[in-house]
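Handout for the seminar on molecular recognition.
Each group receives one record of this type.
Step one: identify the two inputs.
Step two: read the structure output and locate the region that could contact 2-acetamido-2-deoxy-beta-D-glucopyranose.
Step three: write two sentences on what you found, then compare them with the reference statements printed after the record.
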Amino acid sequence: MELRCLLLNIVFISVVNAMLAFGFVNQDEGRRCTYGRIEKLMRIRCHDMDLKEVPQNLKSSVEVLDLSYNRIRKLRSGSFQRYTDVKFLMLYENMILSVEPGTFEPLTALQEVDLSNNGLTTIPMELFQLPKLRNLYMDSNDLRELHQDLALLETPIRAPIEYLNVANCELHDIPDLGILPNLWQLNASSNPLSNFDMNKLGNLCHLRVIDLTKTQISPCSCQQVTNHLSALGASPQFVPVCMAEALDSNACPLNYNRTVDSPTFHSCLTSAELAETRGFWLFAAGCFGGSLLVLLVFCYCIHRWRKKRRNRRLSQAAQNRKHFVISPRNATNNRLEDQPLHCDTA
Ligand SMILES: *[C@@H]1O[C@H](CO)[C@@H](O)[C@H](O)[C@H]1NC(C)=O
Ligand SMILES: *[C@@H]1O[C@H](CO)[C@@H](O)[C@H](O)[C@H]1NC(C)=O
């Protein structure tokens, strides 16, 4: 089967090559976006095609959209209006400098977006309001305006962010997105993290992996991060490798009290629990509602069936009776049963 596929492919490629050689197909048309499936999701790859805009002629049911390695400079508010089913969006290695407000708003199914290696100066704030967004790659952008945009961000954010990559973004501190109860991996490597604020770790109660390599954080901050992660029960293999010799606790106090014992840490935990119990109750309510609906439909069907049967019987009875009813007075009488039948002598 696979061999046949391969042979067919080879034949196809040879035919296309021959056509190209003879000028039947021009080069541009030969480089169309390719359609396929990946784990049952509909994927369209428009990878490395010198695109300058998001193409608008693709199937709108696309779920995995790969626009990487192109020359897109700007994302417009209409760019993704047609593609509301997209769950995974690859935009890495473009030249994106700006994103119009509302660009990502229609993408309510979006779970992962990769905007790495572009020219962005901030993270489009609307991404944080997408209800399904879990993974966000922003690495290798110069996010020099992020700090001021985050000051206006409404927290807690709606997106259930689990993975955030802001490596190599010229950041002086880890971005403050408020409480992120689902975040388990944060990559902030290759940033000049000179203002690293330990207290922000209190927002990340489920953090398991943090990459702080090439960040110039102080040995004490490094030790405190390690300390925080150990207190969370993160496996030591994920703890940053920056710890040289353990510092004296006078020079570098343990920070449980500032992170794990902080009020933000506790509200992070409770909001995670809340989401879990809410999920459970939604599920339970769904099950209950579903069963109730099935029961109602069943009752209704039974009712309908009974009514039909009774009507059929009645009409049969009426028909049977009509043979005896000769008088027009009786024929128009509704209460046939109550009337003694009699023959009209007229
Ligand atoms: C963090 O991101 C950088 C740049 O994308 C990458 O090279 C590095 O492997 C990442 N670290 C981890 C732990 O994934
Ligand atoms: C700091 O945290 C430690 C460990 O959780 C605890 O034993 C200690 O009492 C705390 N100190 C203060 C001042 O809260």
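Reference statements: The pocket of 2-acetamido-2-deoxy-beta-D-glucopyranose (ligand 2) is lined by residues 256-257, 261 (CB under 6 Å). Residues 263-322 form the longest helix (60 residues).
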